[in-house]
């Protein structure tokens, strides 16, 4: 399984940004897909997840502002981020949560300026 994340960039507080993650080689036996983020010196944290039956989960800091979605025809998972805050600045990683192992993309940097 290979994941290619894109869409990061430098934006101002209050702006919107959509991240994309193209997933290839997906096999059966996965729980779903997720977006994580990491700030230097801190642990990677779960931001949003979408299960195989399209149930979604959001962490409290992003609830109401971020939306995770999946387009199966394009093998792509999205993270739509609205009303971005300075504290959303991080490297964002997409992941496939498997039944036996997880798969990770390379990360895309989102920087939100005040």
Summarize the structure.
The chain is mainly beta and 114 residues long.
Question: How would the blueprint of this fold be written?
Answer:
Layout: E1 2-6, E2 9-12, E3 17-24, E4 30-38, E5 45-51, E6 56-58, E7 66-71, E8 76-81, E9 90-98, E10 102-104, E11 108-113
Parallel strand pairs: 2-11
Antiparallel strand pairs: 1-3, 3-8, 4-5, 4-9, 5-6, 7-8, 9-10, 9-11
Rg estimate, integer Å: 13 Å
Low confidence ranges: none
- Compute the number of strand runs: 11
H/E element order? EEEEEEEEEEE
- The oligomerization state is single chain
Which class do the helix and strand fractions yield?
A: mainly beta
Strand proportion: over 45%
Task: Count up the helices.
Answer: 0
Largest sheet: 7 strands, mixed
Distance between the termini: 37 Å
Percent helix range: under 10%
Key terms:
single chain, mainly beta, four-stranded antiparallel sheet, 114 residues
Structure description:
This protein is an all-beta fold. Helices cover 0% and strands 58% of the residues. It is built from no helices and eleven strands. It is globular, with a radius of gyration of 13 Å. The N and C termini lie far apart (37 Å).
């Amino acid at each position: 399984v290979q994941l290619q994340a894109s869409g990061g960039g430098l934006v101002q507080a209050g702006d919107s940004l959509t991240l994309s993650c193209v997933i290839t080689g997906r096999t059966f036996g996965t729980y779903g897909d997720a977006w994580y983020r990491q700030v230097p010196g801190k642990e990677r944290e779960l931001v949003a997840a979408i299960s195989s039956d399209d149930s979604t989960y959001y962490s409290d800091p992003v609830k109401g502002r971020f939306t995770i979605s999946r387009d199966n025809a394009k093998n792509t998972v999205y993270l739509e981020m609205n009303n971005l805050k300075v504290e959303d600045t991080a490297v964002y990683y997409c992941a496939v949560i498997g039944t036996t192992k997880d798969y990770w993309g390379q990360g895309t940097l989102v920087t939100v300026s005040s």
